Amino acid sequence: MDTISEYMESQHQACDDFFVDAERAVSEQNWEQAQSGFDAFHRAIMHHFAMEEEVLFPAVEEITGSAMGPIQVMRMEHEQMRGLFSEMEQALAARDADSFLGAAETLLVLMQQHNAKEEQIVYPMSDQLLAPRLGDVLARLRAAPAP
């Protein structure tokens, strides 16, 4: 993976795979597997958010001199998703499949739209803007600790 786009898109895929596993387990009311799957998804996506919010977005903002535009939208959407994670955690604790799956459906739509914007706009823009520092930024993304 030689570009920010390739690396970050692979992270999206990993998060999506964990999400599908958790959703399937809830549908089957396999609560232990559902909790384990959700925990894996939650760790992966929070790590992904941290890579973006602590490394990628600040690097882009430093070059552009602005915290507005697509990066601001991405941060707002991360906050919306965090709210849905909380709803899903509460539904898991209550073993409420309907509430979990309802929040998961909303999250899925939001993630699909969010990921499309990142993959079509933010990551290609990052590859272009950060080209002179690509190696450094990729190294920092890969080294970012999980929260």
What would your notes on this structure say?
With 147 residues, the chain is an all-alpha fold. The protein has one domain (4-143): Up-down Bundle (Four Helix Bundle (Hemerythrin (Met), subunit A)), CATH 1.20.120. The chain is 86% helix and 0% strand. It has 5 helices and no strands. It has helices at 4-27, 31-64, 70-94, 97-129, 134-143. Helix 1 (4-27) packs antiparallel against helix 4 and helix 2 runs antiparallel to helix 3.
Brief characterization of the structure:
With 147 residues, the chain is an all-alpha fold. 86% of the residues lie in helices and 0% in strands. The protein has a single domain, classed as Up-down Bundle (Four Helix Bundle (Hemerythrin (Met), subunit A)).
Give the helices and strands as they follow along the chain: HHHHH
CATH level 1 class label: Mainly Alpha
Q: Tell me about the biggest sheet?
A: none
Unreliable parts = none
List keywords for this structure.
elongated; Four Helix Bundle (Hemerythrin (Met), subunit A); 86% helix; mainly alpha; 147 residues
Strand and helix layout:
Elements: H1 4-27, H2 31-64, H3 70-94, H4 97-129, H5 134-143
